[in-house]
Amino acid sequence: MEPPKFALPVDSEHKATEFRLFSVAAPHMRAFHLSWVSFFSCFVSTFAAPPLLPIIRDNLNLTASDIGNAGIASVSGAVFARIAMGTACDLFGPRLASASLILITSPAVYFTSAISSPTSYLLVRFFTGFSLATFVSTQFWMSSMFSAPVVGTANAVAGGWGNLGGGATQLIMPLVFGLIRDIGAAQFTAWRIAFFVPALFQTLSAFAVYFFGKDLPDGNFSRLQKTGDKPKDKFPSVLYYGVTNYRGWILALTYGYCFGVELTMDNIIAEYFYDKFDLKLHTAGVIAACFGLANLVSRPGGGVISDAVAKRYGMRGRLWALWIVQTLGGVLCIFLGRVNSLSASIVVMIAFSLFCQAACGLTFGVVPFVSRRSLGLISGMTGGGGNVGAVLTQLIFFKGSRYSKETGITLMGIMIICCTLPICFIYFPQWGGMFCGPSSGKVATEEDYYLSEWNSKEKQKGLHQASQKFADNSRGERGNRALSESEPMPGNETPSPTKV
């Protein structure tokens, strides 16, 4: 049988070894564009309410507590949804999992136009927030389409451009609202009509993912499983190897204080500038949009940095870069809570957003290597950790009037620094960790690590073949510096970079 041909160069798993941003070639770059656009639509829907909050709160008589609870609700629903999404990707594929969730949650966006009480406002924000779990399918999809040398970049650009929706909606919704109002609609009617725009966008993106995307370079899960080219995995095994890998839990914690902080800022930043500096609604929205729109370059930049340092320093370089960038983000967050002038606040906010979002990209430069068999679940755990961080941060610092927003932002910065420290404990026996190299007492190879997720019976059936290929393609995580050492790396007596 003639091997399939692809527009991009590929490795032995048919994953692309190059990332061509302006290409739409199927299946690799098409999957990239479908993933970020659909995730973008979900972000627009989830955070469509905050930029119109001064109008909505007057219409529905919302209290500060109502607003805080709704903000928490908008990100809490996706906690378990992200974990479930990860498992669904492992079992059914990212295309079907993503399209299904986007369609299931779109009615909540339409129903926002009909809400009439604080309770109904909380409920629509809660159910709309489930759509943020499409982040997991985005990262799983990119990790399935792109090889180790560029997977950090692919994950970061897809996630970052999707997150742009959190900033874009700060611009889109006030403009749509203003246009509808200027046409002749009453103020309290205009904001309701405006919600049909993100709702329709989200619905269309779901159909695009389903009809134009592919789960893997070689086709969709269902077809490959029927032909025997992809074995159907078992849920208990996927769950076991995901939840027992401590590296996934550490990344979930640290992601809670980069992406979780980003979600928190999306909920509070427009109101913060509106109230503190007595700005107009549109002006506050434009300033707030700068935080989310920084994702155009910041999160992708984190992915590029992760891949760049990995070429020389391997996985250890990825871990060090993540720790440094996220810690600096925490320091800038503290400064943001302490400055009192409008211009200084804007400058510090933009700098903070760059580091905070770059840390998100750096995190998902590490995630694809934690587990091959439970990639979706690890992605879901990490993504869910982001939502848990957002929920806890808003509960502790921004619910009600216990803290001023300035104090809450300062304390949030301190928490970022503290919760980034556990990265120091992440250790891969074949590559090492931040403070030590690979295991010296026992020969450790990529095959030892990834094939340990399969038992002898499964190996006899050949179910481990994909992990075997992935292990071979991930040797670059040793780094060029390690590969050029005079002494051989464990399990690699003739050190030479493996082309992938």
Walk me through what this model shows.
The chain is mostly helical and 500 residues long. The protein has a single domain (28-216, 232-433), classed as Growth Hormone, Chain: A, CATH 1.20.1250.20. Helix content is 69%, strand content 1%. The chain contains 22 helices and 2 strands. It has helices at 28-46, 53-60, 64-92, 94-111, 118-129, 134-145, 148-183, 187-194, 196-212, 221-227, 235-243, 246-255, 259-276, 281-293, 298-338, 342-366, 375-397, 405-420, 446-451, 456-460, 465-473, 479-483, and strands at residues 427-428, 432-433. A two-stranded antiparallel sheet has the order 1-2. Strand 1 and strand 2 form a beta hairpin. The longest helix is centred in the middle third of the chain and has 41 residues, at 298-338. The two termini are 23 Å apart.
Distance between the termini: 23 Å
- Give the CATH superfamily: MFS general substrate transporter like domains
Main sheet makeup: 2 strands, antiparallel
Q: Per DSSP, what share of the residues sits in E-state strands of 2 or more residues?
A: under 5%
CATH class: Mainly Alpha
Question: How does the helix and strand content classify structurally?
Answer: mainly alpha
- What is the number of strand segments? 2
Rg, please?
23 Å
What order do the strands of the largest sheet run in, or round the barrel if closed? 1-2
- The total tally of domains equals 1
CATH architect. name = Up-down Bundle
Sketch the topology as an H/E string, one letter per element: HHHHHHHHHHHHHHHHHHEEHHHH
Alpha plus pi helix count: 22
Shape: globular
Share of helical residues: 55-70%
Low-confidence stretches are 485-500
Q: What is the average per-residue confidence, as pLDDT, rounded to a whole number? A: 89
Membrane topology: Multi-pass membrane protein
Keywords: Membrane, Nitrate assimilation, Transmembrane, Transmembrane helix
Protein name: Major facilitator superfamily (MFS) profile domain-containing protein
Family: Belongs to the major facilitator superfamily. Nitrate/nitrite porter (TC 2.A.1.8) family.
